[in-house]
């Protein structure tokens, strides 16, 4: 028997509990041994205890160092601040990794897309350093550090090496923001020199957006500061048709949290019709992170086979299966 891994499972709210249960059942059937610790966060938790992110949930993630998280609703305008952002900050999860690929059997405008967006997750305009100047202006500080740029660059190149990828493209606006984006670009360039086996290019963000839409199959690993990374990762998810299929990882030096790109889809809560694929594929990324490569491959292979088959899918992909029935189908496929 292989090692038993401790993982905190945060089911979340909206469709979160349903897709989390589906992902957990698939992981348990994959051959990996997981000791799950289920901890709550989100709206219901707020109503029960007056905090959306209890201390014991934070302690569990700190202890296990790996978490699988369902989506969590963030109230718009007023109300509590994003639990998702709070967790990223708390555990300094500096790398947001989003693989984007076309799935045979799933309708999309493109074929042969297989790229990975590596977004810096902690600095840039998202550092939250902003203020009003009287009532006539507002100012936000774009903070880019050498350390932040270096660790995301290193993560992107190491990721490329580990995953058999051949090219890293840095995306920036260093022609205009010569200090901030200039520092980011110079730092990534210096790191690139340490990885001669990986091809390195850079592109200005506006041109890159056009080229990614024109020829997404030409890209491999993209590395970007926070804001461009946020925009580019949604743009790329849109290329391959379907938020229900997009997994992600938030990686730090001591901790990693895996979650779907999509949110809590409140209109679908409790209906057992949401597509659990994004969280199932996020769980497969988690298993790779834990060194459970075979179990991860088994899950990905089964999901690919089902999507290629075209019929056994959820409503968003034109099928009629429920969330739990899709998980059943993945489990049967893995066993077959
Ligand atoms: P959303 O991703 O929840 O939904 C966007 C659209 O996609 C909706 O039509 C929804 O029904 C559909 N959809 C989403 N996931 C699906 C799935 N698995 N299967 C089938 N259809 C799916 O985005 P939103 O409506 O902007 O946000 C809802 C809430 O989720 C907000 O409170 C937002 O803050 C939160 N959110 C959380 C996270 C996270 O937990 N990391 C990420 C994004 C949004």
Describe what this molecule looks like in 3D.
This protein has helices at 16-28, 43-49, 55-64, 83-90, 146-162, 180-192, 205-214, 226-239, 277-289, 293-309, 323-335; strands at residues 4-10, 33-38, 66-69, 95-101, 114-120, 130-133, 137-140, 167-172, 199-204, 221-224, 247-251, 256-260. It folds into two domains: 1-99 and 243-336, 3-Layer(aba) Sandwich (Isopropylmalate Dehydrogenase); 109-239, Isopropylmalate Dehydrogenase (3-Layer(aba) Sandwich), CATH 3.40.718.10. The chain has 336 residues and is an alpha/beta fold. Helix 1 (16-28) links the parallel strand 1 (4-10) and strand 2. The structure holds nicotinamide-adenine-dinucleotide.
Distance between the termini: 21 Å
- The CATH architecture of the largest domain can be named as 3-Layer(aba) Sandwich
Low-confidence stretches: none
CATH H level of the largest domain: which superfamily?
Answer: Isopropylmalate Dehydrogenase
Please provide the count of β strands: 12
List its traits.
alpha/beta, two-stranded antiparallel ribbon, binds nicotinamide-adenine-dinucleotide, globular, ten-stranded mixed β-sheet, Isopropylmalate Dehydrogenase, 11 helices, 2 domains, 336 residues, 40% helix
What is the element layout, followed by pairings?
Blueprint (H helix, E strand, L loop, with lengths): L3 E7 L5 H13 L4 E6 L4 H7 L5 H10 L1 E4 L13 H8 L4 E7 L12 E7 L9 E4 L3 E4 L5 H17 L4 E6 L7 H13 L6 E6 H10 L6 E4 L1 H14 L7 E5 L4 E5 L16 H13 L3 H17 L13 H13 L1
Parallel strand pairs: 1-2, 1-3, 3-12, 5-10, 8-9, 8-10
Antiparallel strand pairs: 4-5, 4-11, 6-7, 11-12
Helix pairs in contact: 1-9, 1-11, 5-6, 7-8, 9-10, 10-11
The structure holds nicotinamide-adenine-dinucleotide.
Nicotinamide-adenine-dinucleotide binds next to loops.
